[in-house]
Design goal:
This protein is of the alpha+beta class and 127 residues long. Helix content is 23%, strand content 25%. It has three helices and seven strands, in the order H-E-E-H-E-E-H-E-E-E. Strands 1, 2, 3, 4, 5, 6 and 7 form a seven-stranded antiparallel β-sheet that branches. It is globular. It starts with 10 loop residues before the first helix and ends in a 7-residue tail after the last strand.
Amino acid sequence: MSNLRHPDIRIRDIRKLLGYKSYELVWDSGCNETSEWILASVENQIYLERLTNWLAGKNVLPENEALLVNNYWEGTQKIYWKNILENPLAYFGKNSFKLYDLDLNWVMEYSKSEIARFGRYGIKPKA
């Protein structure tokens, strides 16, 4: 299995598969050259616009399917990238989560400390 599309995939299988693929993950640059994290606040309209622009800049198709996992791995939910783009207030500002592309092309992590990062799989880190 090389993706998260199986309808009966278990959380422990997801974690194991992601562990195997973790060496292929490269994080996009964030707020500066030494960090992949960006401010992901929905505190006011300016921050919300910055967040939505950052999300739109990831060039993920709106119909791209993803698996939303809470920070404690208690459950999963399949959503579309357009859900995040169209209603970021439903996801950001509350609880930490991870969002995995079902085909394992990318991942986004959000921390309730209002920071986020985005990475892509399949890109081998430079030695």
